[in-house]
# Entry
Amino acid sequence: MSENTAEQLATKQRDISVAEFFERNRHLLGFDNKRKALLTVVKEAVDNAIDACEEAKKLPEINIQIIDMGNDRYRIIIEDNGPGIVKKQIPNIFAKLLYGSKFHTMKQARGQQGIGISAAVLYAQLTTGRPAKIWSKISIGKPAHYYELHIDTQSNKPEILKDEETEWKEDTGVKIELDIEANYQKGDQSVDSYLKQTAIANPHVTIIYTNPKAEQFIFARASEQLPKEPTEIKPHPYGVEIGILIKMLKATEARTIQSFLTNEFSRVGAGTAKEICDKAGLFTNMKPKDLQLPHVEKLIEGIKSTKIIAPSTDCITPIGDQLLEAGLRKEIPAEFYISVSRSPTVYKGIPFVIETALAYGGDQPGDKTVRLLRFANRVPLLYQQGSCASTKAVTQTNWRSYGLSQSQNSLPVGSLTIVVSLVSVWPPFTSEAKEAIAHYDEIIKEMKLALQEAGRKLGAYVNKKRKIAVQQERVSIFENYIPEVASALSNLSGIGKQNIQEAMKSMLEKNKEYIQAHKESHKVEKTEKQDKEDQIKLGGFDE
# Structure
């Protein structure tokens, strides 16, 4: 058998399109199995819909229908009241992977990579062969644009099967219809759970959901106020790596290093730029494009050794402790709620905020592991819980000191729901499927501090509740022995037994009133914050 020459082997080499790559590696995007595929498709469409509504400054109203077509095939229809999409952008947004407007922007967003919804279209195409159907309307009184699309996976380009105008009753918005191979089951990793958690982290959103059993649930919004729109910022010097810095130096229009540093980075003024150059041993008037690798290495060292103000946090919008608690209250029935928002901080020069909330008691089982709800940029994370920084932070927190049972390095046991939320310009996910947060020390530290702050308030509540229970038990025991004690005291003192019994019962009633008063004061007291929350319309569906 003759050997293949280098020339012969070279003829087999060719470009691989990103669509073709994910066609063979769909598991990387969250399409591991049929049940997860259903969740992933709904999640990507809903996340896009909420983002679009917020950018248009409209309170989102999302309508989701899942229709069982038999033989493990489901039709998913998702409709929003957003601004719609202009005609020429529709094919690229839905039928071209890695196409989007958010990847290069330094501000908080649910979707960033331009993969999600186009990957859902690809999955539908692979499993049923049917095209994605999209309606888009951008203004009142004008017709909607209707497309049927496939993805040409070899070229990663849209294949337009139908393009026409049509009538659509909505004023503006987008509607997408996909037929996919899937499996519907309820549970913690279901579409139902995802939508319920989305309602908690997004209290300004109304979700109308019809499941495959034709049951309709409405998750009503708990706030009429849109989140503050995040502002795009420039990268912070502390977060830049040498390869990125070389790329920026080549692309910049700045004529000097000093102007490059002040124009391309946030928090760098003329004085800070000069200090960086001085510590790097570089002249401030050197041309960026003339810098070689040794110069860039010195520039990195100069940045590291210069004290630079932390990045601006206008680029992120936390949920806020009041709204996070309001969202939790309307979806999780409990007896005690607490929420905590930490101050903004950074990892690798990237701003982030950690928020946490606890819902204790109620109908939640006390003999099972607590329920952990994880969020990144208000999006629920339902898979890979064991790999997530949120889980590590919870297991490393000592919940025994707050009145719960806990084995070493395990989630605590008790009637508790724990919410851990990260908002950031760039959440560090462990994979393209965006299912778990990477274990950055700075992030885990902030999560633990937030959990400890909330835990201390929970511990005070639990301890006081236990003391009241002990007092109640003592009163009950005393009440049972009143006749015997009254009889003994009557024999000793000569006072009538009936008089002693009445006196003891009177004393017992005062004790009961005292305990009841403590019970009432033990409930979450009305504060100015909660008075404002009471004015908010609460609603939702409890499974």
Summary: The CA atoms of residues 130 and 179 lie 7 Å apart.
